[in-house]
Design a protein that fits this description.
By secondary structure, the protein is of the alpha+beta class. It is about 40% helix and about 20% strand. α1 crosses α2 (about 55-70). The chain is elongated and about 105 Å long.
């Protein structure tokens, strides 16, 4: 053995006692051809990037597709992801795959993984990060090569191992579907073929491949499943691989039926119909039975993220608890997703909203621009006789005050700790926090509401209420007209 791999060729004369006439390779090839046809895996005339690591499964996949390519009318490009982090072994892998591609007369596209590639998926753990890096690299290679499909060598055994892996991690019903045969651009032509049949094919056709020593490394979860869990399950059911695959097929049917029903219910839960799942009605969600609520939440997460990778039962439970709890508002961060609950709205977003920053600007008569550059405040003093109160009271962004009861200079700012306010009509000073709560102002909006203040106190909570201390009276001679522009 050299590095992480050893090269291996097995003679058909010593493998499993095969006799001429068995021709299992032809049976496997026919089975793969039928699967490609049934699932429309490869459109005629298209190019396929075949992911070849140099291991047994990928070498068999390449050989099968090469022999089917003329009949099914598609072109092949060999794609290799060089795990450059492993040093000499990676170099040997790449050289071997290059020699295989040359032997078939096929072009090859290669990408060397870097530490930065791995960092992009680090939230999914070591194994997950490597997987995400490989998939992203393969998609990049395919795009550059003009390939519409990416074929990987996943087998029926990989399918079963993935199901058990997801089961152990507490994945939902979608996770127990295992590896999909087709998820464009990825296709798995060997997904209905057992690893033993793949091995038999390689023996019969005298193929050469590389043995990966890390496949025996029990620090990897999937290897522990392969070498310990599945052998134990085989003592209960010798055909456990096929049984798990059948169950996955049944779950796929069930999942599609549930997705159809959930889609119908989602329409009734959206705050803005037709606006995907970005905003859902909390009170309607809370009225659902818990099993239905979990399904709806999973679908909401999937619609916004695009997938459910890394989303586990505990994440959905945390989201359910947020909705059904007593708090009126709250935030929750999930892998690749931020959820904000505000009043009766549950809002999903891929990035958390930026926290509101505090600011303060001096304002004078005339027009003053807001720090956001989008809004402005216009102030002017006019005689009481020129004020049309009816038109002013119909617009929340215009307010009037007794100019002689306002103490200049003025400033416009966001709220501060300990702020107090005397709302119009109440006649007494209260905490600004209590006032905003009584007005049902959304919690996450409170820190961004502009406050117009004179030298003594808040005179206008902009867009909400004037202060009682500066209200108009029968003695008012001059009126301060305050108009917000660029809002609402």
């Amino acid at each position: 053995m050299q590095g992480a791999y050893s090269q291996r060729t097995t003679s058909p004369s010593i493998a499993f006692g095969f006799r001429s006439g068995h021709n299992r390779s032809a049976m496997l090839m026919e089975s793969v051809k039928q699967l490609i046809h049934d699932l429309s895996m490869i459109p005629s005339g298209e190019s396929v990037l075949v992911a070849v690591s140099g291991g047994l499964d990928s070498i068999v996949l390449l050989d099968v597709l090469v022999h089917l390519s003329d009949e099914l009318s598609f072109d092949i490009i060999v794609g290799h992801i060089d795990h450059g982090l492993r040093g000499a072994a990676s170099t040997q892998d790449a050289a071997f795959v290059h020699s295989v591609a040359d032997g078939y007369g096929l072009p090859i596209a290669q990408h060397i993984l870097t530490h930065s590639d791995m960092k992009r998926g680090q939230s999914h753990g070591r194994e997950g990060a490597a997987r995400h890096a490989r998939l992203a690299a393969l998609e990049t290679l395919a795009a550059k090569a003009g390939a519409s499909r990416i074929a990987s060598g996943h087998t029926l055994d990989d399918h079963a191992e993935t199901i058990l892996y997801h089961l152990a991690r507490g994945a939902g019903h979608s996770g127990l579907r295992g590896i999909p045969p087709v998820r464009i651009p990825f296709i798995r032509p060997l997904i209905r073929t057992s690893r033993s049949d793949v091995h038999a094919y390689a023996i019969e056709r005298v193929l050469t491949w590389r043995e990966d020593a890390t496949n025996s490394d029990l620090t990897y979860t999937r290897n522990r499943i392969r070498h310990h869990v599945l052998p134990e399950l085989r003592t209960l059911n010798p055909r456990i691989i096929e049984a798990l695959s059948r169950n996955a097929d049944l779950l796929t049917d069930l999942d599609e039926a549930v997705a159809f029903l959930v889609t119908e219910r989602m329409l009734q839960l959206q705050i803005e119909p037709g606006n995907s799942a970005a905003g859902l009605c909390r009170s309607k969600l809370a009225s659902l039975p818990d099993p239905v609520l979990r399904l709806i939440l999973r679908e909401g997460v999937r619609r916004v993220r695009g997938n459910l990778d890394g989303i586990e039962f505990t994440h959905i439970e945390a989201l359910r608890s947020l909705i059904t709890g007593r708090q009126a508002h709250g935030d929750l961060s999930l892998p690749g997703l931020h959820v904000r609950m505000q009043g009766d709205a549950l809002v999903f977003s891929c990035t958390p909203p930026a926290p509101a920053s505090s600011w303060e600007v001096t304002v004078d008569l005339g027009e003053t621009q807001f720090p956001n550059g989008k809004s402005s405040l216009e102030l002017k003093i006019v005689p009481m006789a020129d004020v049309e109160l009816q038109s002013i009271r119909s617009d929340r962004w215009i307010e009037v005050a007794d100019a002689d009861r306002v103490t200049f200079p003025l400033c416009l700012r966001t709220r501060q700790q300990g702020d107090r306010f005397t709302p119009l009509g109440l006649g007494q000073e209260i905490k600004l926090k209590d006032f905003l709560m009584n007005e049902h102002t959304p919690h996450f909006d409170r820190d961004s509401i502009p406050l117009l203040c004179d030298s003594r106190s808040i005179i206008w909570v902009v867009g909400i209420r004037l202060s009682d201390t500066v209200k108009l009276s029968s003695q008012t001679q001059r009126v301060l007209v305050m108009r917000m522009k660029g809002v609402g």
